[in-house]
Amino acid sequence: MVDEVRDTESTADLLDVDRACARCGYNLRGLRRNDRCPECGILVSNSLRPNLLSSAAPDWLAKIATGLRLYYWTIAIGACLYLVLKLTYDSVLHAINVGNAIAQLFAVFLITMPDATGGGSVRLGARRVARILIPLAWLVDLLIEQLPMPTGMGLIFAMTTGLVVVSTACYVAGVFALYCYLGRLAERIPNDALVCRARFLGWAFLIWIVCINVIRFCVPIVIDYWFQSGMAVATVSMWLGRLTVFPILALDVVSYLFFVRLWRAVVSAKACAQSA
Length: 276
Fold this sequence. Notes:
By secondary structure, the chain is an all-alpha fold. It has two domains: about 1-50, no CATH class; about 55-275, no CATH class. Helices cover about 70% and strands about 0% of the residues. The protein has eight helices and no strands. It has helices spanning about 1-15, 60-85, 90-110, 125-145, 155-185, 190-225, 230-245, 245-275. It starts with a helix and ends with a helix. The relative contact order is 0.11.
């Protein structure tokens, strides 16, 4: 009796219709839902989900793909400008950097466009958080630039410090939310490697920004307490600024590669959606 029930359940799980694998297009007919695709290895059940990107609106996927492509170009340009501006200041390069930041904001706007079909609505909160906090951080930065340089521990210094904290918190939370949302998109491809990479980049960015700000603020205070020397504090701050360049560039390289791979996957999903 038990064997008959198991045979019935196994037969019920078998696909008796033609169904293409969501990743490689292999015909999954005759496989069970818990099996894996013989060609690419993803679960058969992933290809049966109704919220896959290949089933989404092609126009929405086109906007996502455009945003991803623009974003990875802004990462590359921003990394180069960051490295050059660390070595020398130039007003033209600074203006280009501002333009690059505006382009990145537009990319975030495209990437976080809502899906009209409502697919993958479980984590739409992350999409909204990224859509709000990243532009808010940029607006706060603009406000900081309008404030006069603080000359002492007065009101201007307190306002500037508070706004810097708000801007950093908004940007970090916004980028973390963006990677959470991109991980959700990767689940809808589906691509497990991109899902893991999105989670890694989100946490790596969060931990790195928190650690580097703690180090940059706390170490000079400790140096000043022990040595009572402004020169020592300035020297340590200068070297800390230089040492942060390499990890930031490394994170930019990994982020660039992630966005390129995700862009290619979305373009492929858009082609499937158009041909459906």
